[in-house]
Structure to design on (304 residues):
């Protein structure tokens, strides 16, 4: 997100078709993962969506020990032209090529990224326009460090560094805010995106078999209702032979908290039509966006 994007009025919210790829068959072989992801992008494109989304860590096994091994240098600077041909990232090259071939917007899930200068490793989402240009990215801000006794312990911070920016991008049909997985548990990020004019928030994510049944749908519905926006998370498919068992259940929620579509646990492509009328009616009928009391509490989006 650049200063320019802060100052520009959001695009007129128009109807569009969204495709989520709940990707399966993610193995230890990165080349195989990229090949399969590309095949699924092309398959999803046959449904004529305007925007296609991949899940978190689509090119590698999910785990803090894997992130440094699979990390790629991207070298993207927001607001500056990016030369795909000179990119060191094979994942970026594949995603760019697929977006261009399908002539569609593409949110490339996330991949482990190694910073070209600091050597820090991030969990990074990249975004491509229909011409295949890399136009935005988001580094996961909140790292997944949890310990639920007897159920799950995971610590991303052992190998990852947290991002330090909020991010969105403009299409011809909507302003779309970005986050990754654990970012959803911090409502401030979604609030800021909504107040910056985002009509839709999309977070690639990979909840597990403990937190997934409890909070996956609840958090998405909560963020959608609180901010009166469309909210979506795209998960990898569940693989019980892998070291990390994803919950699956990729979904899209409307501004009234209604689940518009939901995948099951396996590999699947789901589509939904995003209707701006629902957005407008929610905000007109329950006008919380005009009733906030910033004389009583601060607007956390101010100054960002």
């Amino acid at each position: 997100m650049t200063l320019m994007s802060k100052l520009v009025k959001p695009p007129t919210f128009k109807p569009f078709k969204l495709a989520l790829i709940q990707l399966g068959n993610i193995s230890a072989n990165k080349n195989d993962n990229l090949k399969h992801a590309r095949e699924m992008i092309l398959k999803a494109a046959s449904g004529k969506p305007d925007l296609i989304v991949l899940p978190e860590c689509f090119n590698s096994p999910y785990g803090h020990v894997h992130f440094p091994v699979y990390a790629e240098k991207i070298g993207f600077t927001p607001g500056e032209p990016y030369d795909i041909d000179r990119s060191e990232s094979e994942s970026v090259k594949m995603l760019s090529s697929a977006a261009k071939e399908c002539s569609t917007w593409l949110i490339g899930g996330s991949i482990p990224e190694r910073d070209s200068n600091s050597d820090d490793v991030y969990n990074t989402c990249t975004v491509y326009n229909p011409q295949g240009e890399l136009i935005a990215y988001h580094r996961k801000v909140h790292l997944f460090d949890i310990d639920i006794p007897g159920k799950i312990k995971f610590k991303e911070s052992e190998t990852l560094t947290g991002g330090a920016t909020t991010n969105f991008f403009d299409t011809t049909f909507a302003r779309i805010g970005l986050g990754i997985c654990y970012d959803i548990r911090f409502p401030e990020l979604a609030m800021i995106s909504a107040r910056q004019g985002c009509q839709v928030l999309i977070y690639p994510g990979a909840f597990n078999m403990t937190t997934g049944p409890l909070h996956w749908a609840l958090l998405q519905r909560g963020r959608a209702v609180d901010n009166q926006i469309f909210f979506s998370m795209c998960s990898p498919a569940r693989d019980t032979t892998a070291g990390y068992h994803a919950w699956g259940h990729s979904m899209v929620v409307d501004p009234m908290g209604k689940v518009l579509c939901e995948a099951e646990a396996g590999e699947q492509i789901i589509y939904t039509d995003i209707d701006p009328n629902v957005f407008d009616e929610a905000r007109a009928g329950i006008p919380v966006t005009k009733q906030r009391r910033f004389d009583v509490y601060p607007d956390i989006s101010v100054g960002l």
